[in-house]
Amino acid sequence: MGADIVVCNSIVGLYARCGSLEHSRTLFDEMPEKDGVTYNTMISGYMAYGFINQAMELFHQVPNPVLSTWNAVIGGLVQNNSFHHVLDLFQAMQNAGFRPNSVTISCVLPAISSHSSLLTVKQIHSYAVRNGCDRNVYVATALIDAYGKTGFLDGARRVFDASGAGSTSVIIWTAIISACSIRGNSDSAVSIFRRMVGRGIEPDPVTFTAVLSACAHSGEVDEARRILNVSMPEFRVSPEAEQYACVVGALSRKGMLSEAVELIDRMPFPPNSKAWGALLNGAAVHRDVAIGEHAFERLLEIEAENSGNYIVMANLYSQAGKWKEAQMVRKKMEEVGVGKVAGCSWIEGNGRLQVFISSDMANEHSRQAFELIDELVGLMREEGYTFAAKEELDEECCCC
User: Fold this and answer.
1) Span 33-59, mean pLDDT?
2) How far apart are CA 162 and CA 175, in angstroms?
3) Where are the PPR repeats (predicted)?
């Protein structure tokens, strides 16, 4: 039976799913005959474990790739956050004469939303409508997610109302809750969550994370507690670190820092960086140096390479007038070899994405932008706003 292509494909897939990629590739190379399934299986196996280069090398060896092969590669790239390559491959697929189907569209949309290109999302949506696949649950879910991430919440709601409001699929309800959460609309997120539960649709852990994230963004402490202590046990979902971190975030944003520390201490497993990060940010907002130091020490143990933690702590010290301590944090950051990630903002206009990076003078409009910032800072000072130190302004400023 060794030469039977169906049997060989199954074994190649078995090895790949078990993570034995060497065995999978050995059998793949020895097969006297290969079809589209063979290549798709091997490519997906590489992509599942992050071996993008090997997967792409294999893809370029496919004699006559079919649509499913293109979809496997595009889906794998999205899975590995290689969004730039996705758009290039999507264009190459169309140039090769293939028409995107619902699988292609649902895979490509996350890559487009990562670039905040609302116009392109609308174009993909229009294509989906013209080709009758906009009601596909996976396409609709991807569209809701993409519209939410590009800031067009009305678009996300329209897609949901057209194809998801009557659906029993938990993923499409979770998508619209997440879209509301991303835009900071906690009232809508909680309201949709309640509608979902009222229709007998059981939320999963991802749904709970989405609605709790909305509570964290707005400091909805009571609702966050109710969901954690009542709703999750009701649906037999055990809270995980992600959900606890959201509740810590809600408490911290509200200034209930002691309660946030108590919740972290009661967690049945070691708290992750998101929980400590939420506490540190809350301490910075409410200028609680002691709790900030406590959270910062824990974060150094978990993610010493995260530059954001150092900057928040240094600024907290600066706000408290502890210049020596602030300088020590910045010095430690240099000793560890952590560099501050340059602030970046972008806006879509004139048919393309305009990107601005902090302190970058390469853009032709940089000088005018910096002059405008100086004017704005001057106006803020006239209105009574003060800055603890020049360093704080420099590190907090992300635009140019």
Assistant:
1) 91
2) 14
3) 4-38, 66-100, 169-203, 204-239, 306-340
Structural domain spans, the chain: 1-99, 264-341, 342-400
Alpha-carbon torsion (361, 364, 365, 367), positive or negative: positive
Please compute, for residue 391, the number of CA atoms within 13 A of its CA located in the half-sphere on the CB side: 16
Tokens of 392: 């704080």
Same CATH fold assignment for domains 1-99 and 264-341: yes
**Where does the pLDDT of residue 396 fall: very low under 50, low under 70, confident under 90, or very high at 90 and above?**
very low
Q: Which residue has the tokens 């649902």?
A: 106
Give the per-residue pLDDT at 1. 60
CATH of domain 264-341: 1.25.40
In this structure, are residues 337 and 366 in contact, taking their beta carbons and an 8 Å threshold?
A: no
- Residue 295 near residue 276 (C-beta atoms within 8 A): yes
pTM: 0.79
Cβ contact 151:183 at 8 Å? yes
Structure-block tokens of residue 328:
């020590």
